Amino acid sequence: MEYAIVTGASKGLGASAAQEFISKGIPVISVSRSENIALKQTAESAGVSYTHYSCDLSSAQQVQSVFANICEEVFQHAENVYVINNAGVIEPIDIAGELDAALVQRNIQVNLSAPILISNLFLQKAKETGARVIITNVTSGAGERSIQGWSIYCSTKAAVNMFTKTAGLELENSGSSNKVIAFSPGIMDTDMQVTIRSSSEEAFADVDTFRNYKESGSLRSPDTVAGALVKLVLADHLDNGKIYNVNNLL
Question: So what CATH class is 2-190+222-242?
Fold first, then answer.
């Protein structure tokens, strides 16, 4: 049996990825603070198993508790488990010296700590049960270059990339069938882009560039990107630790 676990599945890329898994008949477990009722209805209509877990990924305690419960559900029957660590936050958007401390902590927990904790738990359970796990950490081009005003977002995505590369190396060295990869989705028409466009020029020097992306129709739809993502994780061959870019998949 197969399962797909998608964080941040209430909207954007997460919702589209969950929808794509459902369309392929793969049971979905969505994880987010609020539930996407349309996903539930789609799954019911398609006769595909769907479960929602409410979780605030900025709470390490909730992450450990909720995902321990998910593992109990999944690893009783699973042969293949697809984990999409998609949830992410862009804030704080501001220059160093003006950063909100609470937003810094939340960003690090959601963007970095949560994917690491989730990956660690699923790899542990896979080793115990013999199930195969494929973990995809959604990253960003911001993890590979400096962007004024995005110091925390750039830093957490860079760290996610290095965790992915290192965990992938470890799995290869151990001869494991499990995989950890990263996926860079490019610029999409999501709520995160709305937040970016609402930034001040003082906080984010490139804000006009991102406003132009919207005005010029340069933003891809989450459905298009999700199609490439799900096709990737279901492929027969994946390179452990690799950062896959959507531009090379479409």
Answer: alpha beta
